[in-house]
Every structure is written in structure tokens, then in C-alpha cells.
Amino acid sequence: MPPVSLIALAIVIVAVIPGSMYTWAYEREASAFGVTLADRTLRFIAISLLFHLALGWPEYLLYRVALAGPRFEVGQFAATWAAVLLVVALPGVVGTVLGGLYATRNSREGWVVIRNRLNPERERHLLRLALGRTPAPRAWDDLFSDRPTMYLRVQTTDGTPVAGLFADDSYAGGFPHDTDLFLEDAWDLTEDGSFGKSLGYPVYIPAGQIARMEIVRPLSGAEEATNG
Fold first, then answer.
1. Tens digit of pLDDT per residue, the chain (228 long)?
2. Buried (b) or exposed (e) across 39-50, using 16+ Cβ within 10 A?
């Protein structure tokens, strides 16, 4: 049943805004694969409930100050502003931090201030505790969600072989979007199907043209340093 008054609408917005801000901030950093409209709505509600439980007493105190008198004076405005900041900014910051840590969990690049206080094992525990297991909806998403660095050999639907390097500047479409593929460096293939040499330009493969894909081999640390 939709809200029938402005007050009811305001209550609904306040109730779900922490989860909304957290989810939007998280998805901005870590992408939104696997998040349909129904799933996103449930996340808004569930995460908002957790934030309201954690921030319940500060919210109540600010509410009491905001409604302390009949006139909306400076103190009441300050309390209202602080309450809005609490339920909007804090979830956004938490979502951004967790999304950024999750998106760079393999390379551990960036977020230096936080990672100086977290070793890899503690970071994994933190992400597991905060985000859960986060299983990928498809094998495709499971492969590319970790942002691996690897060589791929793709056979298109018309039988044409395409090969290239998938690395930091590459991209693979995630659920629920099409599984298209952008390889940052195309490679030549020899007659026996092995990799020849870099062609020096990227290649895009639409989702509907991918018939088969082979993971030839991950890029070793020495090769990463050489290509870098």
C-alpha cells in the first residue's frame, strides 16, 4: 500500500535512505552485478534496518532535540541537519569504503590509509563479515569478478579465433547485462592456435558472437612487470 500523506512518505524515505545510500555508494565502486530491482529493494530495506539499529540512540536523541520546541530555531535545525547527515553520509561512506576494498581485493591498490592497518587476512575477514559470501550468479561473473590478469582465446560464432590480454584496462559485462568482452591488447595466433605476438590495439567482442572461450594461462608476476 503506497503512503497516503506527506508525513507517511517522509517516514518511508527516512526508513530506506540509509540502505539506498550504502548500496548506491557500494555499487559505484564495486559494480552492481547480480542486483535486480527486486534484489536492490530488499537490500535497501535490510541494510537500512541494520543502520537504524546501529544508530538508533543517536537518531532518537537528535529527534528529541529537533522537536524540543514549537519554533524551529537554530538548535532544532542543527539537530535535523545532523540527523540527515547521519542517515545519508555515514551509509554512503561505509558503502564506498567496502565497495572500494572489494573491487581491489586482489591487487590491493589504493585505500592506503585503511590497508596500512589491515593485513590481507584481516581484510578478507572484514569483507566476508560485512558482505557475506557474495556468490556470482554465473560462471562468467565468477571468472571476471576478481579482475584477473590472463590471456584469452575466443572462438566467435562464425568460427573466427580471437585472442588477447585481459588485464586492468579490459572489461567484461556482468549480470544482468550482456556478456560482451573488451580485451585491451589483441594478440596474433599462429597456425597451431598458440599466441604469436601483440598486435598493439584492443579488440571488442559482442556477447552474441562468443561461442567458446579458453583461458590460456594467467599472466605471471614476471610477465606483469615486463608488460607494465
1. 555 666 676 677 778 889 888 988 888 887 765 566 667 777 778 888 888 888 888 888 887 877 776 666 777 788 888 888 888 899 999 999 998 998 788 778 889 999 998 898 999 899 888 888 766 778 888 888 777 889 999 999 999 999 999 988 899 988 777 889 999 999 999 888 888 899 999 999 999 999 999 998 765 543 444 444
2. ebeebbeebbee
Residue with cell 526508513: 15
> Which domain-ending residue is among 78, 105, 131?
131
Q: Does the global pTM surpass 0.85?
A: no
CATH number of the domain at 160, please: 2.30.30.100
Both 160 and 118 in one domain: the answer is no
The residue segments making up the domain with residue 92 are 6-131
Query: Cell triple for residue 113?
Result: 590509509
